Amino acid sequence: MMINMPEDLQNDALLGDLLPKYVTRVLARNGITTVDGVRKAYPLDLLKMRGMGQLRFKQIEAALFPGSSYTPARISSPIRQTKGSSLNGILSPGTVQALARGGIMTAEQLVDLELEGLLKIRGLGVAKLREIEKIFYPSQHYEL
Question: How much is the pTM?
């Protein structure tokens, strides 16, 4: 994909006055502070950032990529992660969060716990139990 950028912008130029403050804050929270960083993240990585909506994305396009227009087929929001849990990405975010409430942050802790003990965790119901069974206990089916 060829990206059109104004020639007077240097790749290592800071974003300070090029974009509105709230847009530069979103970019900075995601580790992007230079024009080169925006260029490398354009378009898909920019759209995946927390706090980056279509309005902010279009402001970046207008300022740094005049003449370019990217319209995604679908905008996906960032996947919620539970800090410190190694179960992120293995189980759904809601299940990982419920397990974290019960003090379970690793697969080892999960496997060591009996299945009936899982149902004692607040927010962990039958649907989440079935998800855990499917991944960690494929040959078992806990009867309620």
Answer: 0.47
Nearest C-alpha neighbor of 52 from the set 68, 75, 82: 75
Tokens of residue 63, six digits = 């300022």
C-alpha span between 33 and 51 (Å, rounded) = 15
Residue 18 confidence (pLDDT):
87
DSSP state of 16: T
Q: d(Cα 36, Cα 42) in Å, to the nearest integer?
A: 10
- Is the distance from CB of 88 to CB of 81 less than 8 angstroms? yes
Query: What's the chain's length in residues?
Result: 144
Residues of the chain with pLDDT under 70: 1-12, 74-79
What distance lies between CA 9 and its chain's CA centroid? Answer: 30
101: closest CA among 115, 120, 122? 122
Whether the upstream peptide bond of residue 20 has omega within 30° of 0, thus cis, is no
